[in-house]
Structure to design on (287 residues):
C-alpha cells in the first residue's frame, strides 16, 4: 500500500521525533482503539472548528434545539449547508486516513471511532468505522425515518432555490459554510418526499445525544483494545472525551497525536503535539 500516498518532502525535527515515538508506541500494541477528530481531515481541505488553544475558530455550529424549533434558523442552516456541502462531498482522504487503513489491514485496530461526519475513513477503504456523530452524506426524515442521499437533497435544494446557486463561501467540517445573508430565512428547506416530514442531516448536532447503541458499540470495542490512540482531536466534546476516560479507567495506555492542548492531556501516557498527517504516515510500517 506504500505507493498510494507516498511520504514526500522533508519533515521538521520535532515531527521526526514524533514519528519515532509513535512508531515505537505502535510497535508495542496490536489491539488499538482509534478515535479521530477534525484535525485528521484538515489536510483534505475540511477546516476544523477549534484552534490549538481548544477555542472556537469560528461561530459555533447550530444546535439541535434551534434546528428543531426555529424555522428561520433551520432555513439558515440549509442555506449555509447548500453552499458549504459540495466542498465536503468532493474532499478526498489524505495520507493519515490511508495510514490508519493500512494499520487496520494489518489487523492492528479493534475499531476506529470518528467524530468526523465527512465519511473520509470509509472513502479511504477503512472497513470498521463507527461514525460517532453520523454522516453528512445522509439525510433522514424525522417523521417516517426514510433516508435520502444528501446529493439528492442538494439537487432538490438547487431546484427550490434557484437564486442561490452561484454562491460560494468557506466551508466547515459539517458541510456548514461561513456565510450570512439578510434573506436567509427565505431559503426553502427540504421536506420528505414520502410524507412531507422534517428532514435533518443524519448527524448529531450540538445539544443532541449520540445514539445510545452507537456509544455502547464503541465502548465494547474499547474493552477489547490494549491501547487507545487519539488522532486530530482536542477531545473538548464529551462524546469523544469519555473514551479517553474509559481508557484511563481501564489502565490502558493513551496516546494523543494532535496539535495543541486537549482536554485529556492529563490522561495521556504519550502526547505528540504535531501535525497528524506526516507523523502518522511516517510512523506506519507498510507491509
Ligand atoms: Zn418522511
Amino acid at each position: 500500500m506504500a505507493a498510494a500516498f507516498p511520504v514526500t518532502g522533508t519533515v521538521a525535527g520535532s515531527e521526526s521525533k514524533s514519528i519515532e515515538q509513535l512508531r515505537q508506541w505502535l510497535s508495542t500494541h496490536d489491539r488499538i482503539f482509534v478515535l479521530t477528530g477534525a484535525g485528521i481531515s484538515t489536510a483534505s481541505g475540511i477546516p476544523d472548528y477549534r484552534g490549538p488553544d481548544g477555542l472556537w475558530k469560528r461561530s459555533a455550529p447550530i444546535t439541535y434545539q434551534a434546528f428543531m424549533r426555529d424555522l428561520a434558523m433551520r432555513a439558515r442552516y440549509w442555506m449555509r449547508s447548500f453552499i458549504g456541502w459540495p466542498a465536503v462531498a468532493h474532499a478526498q482522504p489524505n495520507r493519515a486516513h490511508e495510514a490508519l487503513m493500512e494499520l487496520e489491514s494489518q489487523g492492528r485496530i479493534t475499531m476506529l471511532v470518528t467524530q468526523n461526519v465527512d465519511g473520509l475513513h470509509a472513502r479511504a477503504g477503512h472497513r470498521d468505522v463507527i461514525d460517532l456523530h453520523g454522516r453528512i452524506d445522509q439525510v433522514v426524515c424525522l417523521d417516517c425515518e426514510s433516508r435520502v442521499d444528501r446529493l439528492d437533497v442538494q439537487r432538490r435544494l438547487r431546484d427550490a432555490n434557484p437564486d442561490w446557486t452561484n454562491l460560494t463561501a468557506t466551508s466547515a467540517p459539517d458541510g456548514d459554510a461561513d456565510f450570512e445573508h439578510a434573506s436567509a430565512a427565505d431559503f426553502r428547506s427540504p421536506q420528505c418526499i414520502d410524507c412531507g416530514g422534517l428532514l435533518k442531516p443524519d448527524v448529531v448536532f450540538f445539544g443532541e445525544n449520540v445514539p445510545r447503541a452507537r456509544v455502547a458499540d464503541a465502548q465494547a470495542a474499547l474493552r477489547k483494545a490494549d491501547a487507545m490512540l487519539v488522532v486530530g482531536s482536542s477531545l473538548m466534546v464529551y462524546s469523544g472525551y469519555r473514551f479517553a476516560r474509559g481508557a484511563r479507567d481501564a489502565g490502558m495506555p493513551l496516546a494523543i497525536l494532535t496539535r495543541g492542548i486537549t482536554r485529556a492531556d492529563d490522561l495521556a501516557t504519550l502526547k505528540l503535539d504535531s501535525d497528524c498527517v506526516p507523523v502518522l504516515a511516517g510512523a506506519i510500517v507498510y507491509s
Confidence is low (pLDDT under 50) at residues 1-10. The chain has nine helices and eleven strands.
